[in-house]
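FAQ

Q: What does a record look like?
A: Structure on top, sequence underneath. For example:
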């Protein structure tokens, strides 16, 4: 099993960019919680079958996959349904992430979880790497990427851990202000550090 480096950061911090650079430059395995969350509700999974039992086949699209828009609407109007869904999916997601970690072949792997600190999932990691930017940069990037209002973005920011809470939890920090050479250099330094951890075990 690889050393597990948790990778997190607020919305618009550039977590995906950082993860992709570790993967592309050094062949590091990435376990992405957002992708895992989709995998546990694919057709014929326990996750999706349980959702169908609860909400009926109307929750599916014509191709048999989950109608995410419809599910979001249902959760929005029924808070108790959101809790039920979290209680169903969180253990399945955690189990799948652990499974994928065990399959990792690179010297260390990155476990990318947007709400790592909020859900205390750094307990699954050996070190926590935080991608850090200021709030104004988060707002600008998210606006450009998702074409949403500043108000919406500020609501998302308010629902996430604060910048300081993430930094307090971090073992390592990457500052990502979009300067590509500086970002590549920080990743190269951390890669060397993480390889040394592997050798020290």
């Amino acid at each position: 099993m690889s050393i597990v480096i948790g990778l997190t950061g607020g919305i618009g911090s550039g977590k995906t960019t950082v993860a992709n650079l570790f993967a592309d430059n050094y062949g590091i395995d990435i376990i992405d919680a957002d992708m895992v969350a989709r995998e546990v509700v694919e057709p014929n999974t326990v996750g999706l079958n349980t959702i169908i039992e609860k909400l009926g086949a109307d929750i599916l699209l014509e191709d048999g996959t989950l109608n995410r828009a419809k599910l979001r609407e249902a959760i929005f109007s029924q808070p108790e349904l959101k809790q039920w869904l979290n209680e169903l999916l969180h253990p399945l997601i955690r189990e799948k992430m652990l499974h994928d970690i065990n399959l990792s072949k690179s010297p260390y792997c990155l476990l990318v979880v947007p709400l790592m600190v909020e859900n205390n999932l750094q307990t699954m990691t050996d070190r926590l790497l935080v991608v850090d930017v200021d709030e104004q940069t988060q707002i600008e990037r998210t606006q450009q990427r998702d074409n949403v209002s500043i108000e919406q973005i500020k609501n998302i920011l308010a629902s996430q851990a604060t910048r300081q809470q993430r930094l307090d939890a971090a073992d390592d920090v990457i500052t990502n202000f979009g300067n590509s050479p500086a970002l590549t250099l920080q990743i190269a330094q951390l890669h060397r550090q993480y390889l040394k951890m592997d050798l020290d075990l």
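Q: Is there anything notable about this one?
A: The chain has a mean pLDDT of 92.
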